[in-house]
Specification:
Chain A is of the alpha/beta class. Chain A contains 6 helices and 5 strands. In chain A, strand 3, helix 3 and strand 4 form a beta-alpha-beta unit. At the B-C interface, strand 5, helix 5 and helix 6 of B face strand 5, helix 5 and helix 6 of C.
Chain lengths: ~170, ~170, ~170, ~170, ~170, ~170, ~170, ~170
């Protein structure tokens, strides 16, 4: 568990889906968190349909020392901004393009173009994996074990490219 | 005053700006509301910076029988959606393109692409005047005086075009 | 029936399709109107192919106290604007992206960017459900039963999210 | 006068502005019509504010053997389509980008993406000059004098480019 | 045959495809031309691969009194502009979105944004049918039989909408 | 100084400009860092013109325990991605729209659409202030003083909105 | 082999894929290089995952007198720019739209909008074939045999269009 | 003079403007060519207004061993493609965004999205300087003096960045 401080079972990361239709992006995200042994909790909370639950949950999670929030949302994706308006912990937004009628431009602009004062760290369209890695990079600032795992992850990526290259250049 | 029911001094419409930089759009909007003698109240409330004030204000306004909410906002314009998540009264959204770095595409898509269940009635970019008229059309459903004023307003518009046409065709 | 005033069998809402290819969006819309027991009439009228029928129909419907018009249209979607030019009742536009060659940008901009004086309340791409709910919100201003149904509808939505969340967080 | 048939003073072309704010584009257009001695009439008629005048005017103009209609309009530019729905004479649309909040994308798509059956011949953004030339090309099909003028116009254009080239290549 | 002047077997219209991959759009176009008994010739000529053939063909067709040219092309669709640079007869451009990697925005802008002096009458994405009707409208200016057929075509369209409406409103 | 670990004078944040034309965005960013007493170092390093300097600098900065990197860049903004390929520390990207010929869409997409494995935390166009706050939120995870300052900063923002609202609602 | 100078077995062209998911574009590219008997080497090297390998490889390839580099990449396609920052040999970029969530706009803008001083010769979306031909045109400047082959290739293209035209016009 | 072969006074590069309104982009381009002592000739030739002059000129220039063609054009920028259809020498296209009504998207897509077989090497919007450098890189493949100048140019760029960095980091 990569929780910031000692204590009972903690989640380092909270992953919140705006809708269960965002599950596919979540799967690529949770796979990376699991691979890096990062503890996380997962919720489906709608900024528009259950705003009070969102507020209570985020405030509680902040008290329980959840370090990073990741919001996965499509369309007019107010979720990451709504989270960021409640907490001063880092909030990562994953705009969802899957099933989007307009290539995810709606969720991308709804996340990245936040007003001054309330930042959202936006990653690419459907980029669950990068959201998980960004959260890991943030947590690794105070966790050397995780930093090592991240570097190992990079090495694995690097090796995969090298292997493919080795095969490809001899084709 | 075009309030839905009898009572003390009521606002039929609530106009909420996400920021005082949206003032220019507000001016074109309030001019039409005044011209049609529609009572309204005006606020600057940020969905991200003062979300609790927003919640209290909308709930209170709903109880005071404010009929229509108009939100003017730019960038990742979460304001109309946030209002719509609190009340079941009609919410009109005016996306702001003035000073936008991306032609208002961010605020337009953030408003119009609402998730199922939480509608926002979106009008054109910086279209304060049309937002006021749409609110008036809604109020006029239960107010015949206002309906007549709206029809007179249309006639005035029509006459202006006809006058310009009369001059233009003889140039 | 949620008609504004007493009388014989009235439609509260008129739903107009620009083409029968917009049927899929209509289905999601009519399902919500039926669920809320809102009386409506349904037509296929083309702004370009049967403009005189449109004019006669809208004027007649306005006399029959139809309160809200909903237009579903794709491509250069002139339909909602054409309706709005005939009546001062609220007109809701649903831009159709299904089968659009350009992601519905054509119908979205053709609806939302109305000239000053002739507002169209635009909802999201293919957002039949939200158009129905927006119409219901307008009608509910003078109908407490409908207002209660709308709040119940919201509660149902809220409960669905909560149920999914309850299952998801324990996965 | 390049009217299709003999008779009293006829207009070969009708130029209709959706608003007097489209005057600047009109000026570039009328200059070319005048240069080619093409008779035309000019009107300001709004598809949304004076639709009945539009209908009467187009039907009358068609009877008076106006051959080509040119519509100049911005925003959700329904004007050329509205004209095309009334007449089977060719309709040329000029989308206006000047003062547009969204680069004229709204008027361009509102004109060019017409539904099957109702064509609009769309030219470039603010392209008054090309609209005039396209009208002239259509009229020239039954008017050899105009055809010669068009070819002379092309020669003049060609010569201007050649003169600039001659100077430029020696700089 | 709707040729402008009497003579041997003439084509009123020339339809040119930039590539045989544009065949699907051509089919919708030729169906309308055939339905209206408009004589036409059909070619596949590339502005980039067979420019000299294009030049010879257009000059010859102009001499043979072909009245209207229709170009169907995708990608950087230089074809209609290349034709328009050779002839002063009206040139209609059909931008192809089918198989386009960028929704036909490339061909649309390559056609509609012609430089001053060389107009192209652009119709909608893949709008073969409207291109045929626009050509027919131009030819009908000097052919009353065709004008009647066009009006009959409109009536048929109108009737189809009315039939669908009649069925739909009783569902 | 908000450095992660004890030691000599440390920079918590490194701010890198791709060009000195990005200065205006930097100014809004450095103002916030200064206001929050966050130590930072500032560089102009081009991913394309001085790539070796970039590599050396980032590796050195990582060793010196710089916690967060912020890259400000326009056009094909490779800078944040290049930094992220060298370090596993969090990298924040600020796409520059000022002077952009295409509204900053080039730099926004060049930053946010990173390949899997190399995340960049992208903020809004020219959003120097939000980049600084995001960096502060990350640093505050292990620095309670900074966390308090951030909450105070939020309160100040909130108060400013409330003051403006108080004046505005009485106008 | 179309290598610039005499020597042992040389590659005239180096083709580098950012990922093996770009294979489909590569296939259309290599087919043309093979057809023109242009020697080339092929690699999979990631600008972000294996940047050091990229640097070593490009510097080595430049010494081995590889004349032209072709980079095929999607998303935030930093690869061609990264190559161009290492060598002064011409670099051709092929933006990949296949599987892109945003129609390849990300890779197109990431390649074509290079900062001043570091040019990338960008071809169309997924345009492997044109990238190969552009490389061939560059190599042909110092190789008359290749120039002849290129002209023959053009003739073949021309003939194919003519054959299709011959069949089509008689349909 | 960096001409490919020995002979009388040769131009290595031909720079062609589609219109004299593209002069500003030309100036940044010619400055670089002059700085690198690359001989060039400059013309204003319109693909649409003087197509025959274009054909004669390009064929003649190819015979005179002009190595690289650079076309600067705006709007539906057919010029580089038209050149590429005449010669098999490399053609560089510079899309012009200055004064464009649509941010140069028209000229960018008109250039980069060439059909298979006719490549255009497209550089950035208004990127005259990069076009010149790309031409220089191509010429340098057979000219070692130019290759050295290019490397020196890069060093100068690098030094400028370093100087600015040196000043900036001490501010």
């Amino acid at each position: 568990v990569y929780a910031k401080r000692e204590g009972e079972a903690l989640s380092a990361v909270s992953v919140i889906l705006g809708s269960d239709s965002d599950r596919e992006v979540f799967n690529s995200l949770s796979a990376v968190l699991n691979e890096l042994d990062i503890s996380f909790e997962q919720r489906i909370i709608s900024a528009h349909r259950t705003p009070d639950i969102l507020k209570n949950y985020i405030e509680d999670a902040e008290k329980r020392d959840v370090s990073v929030f990741i919001a996965i949302a499509g369309m007019a994706a107010a979720l990451p901004g709504a989270i960021a308006s409640i907490t001063t912990r880092p909030v990562i937004g994953v705009p969802v393009a899957l099933k989007s009628k307009i290539m995810g431009l709606d969720s991308l602009l709804s996340m990245v173009q936040m007003p001054p004062g309330i930042p959202v760290a936006t990653v690419g369209l459907d980029a669950g994996r990068n959201a998980a890695l960004l959260a890991a990079e943030i947590l690794a600032l105070s966790n050397e074990t995780l930093e090592k795992k991240l570097k190992a992850y990079r090495d694995t990526q690097r090796n995969k490219v090298m292997e493919k290259d080795a095969a490809f250049k001899e084709e």
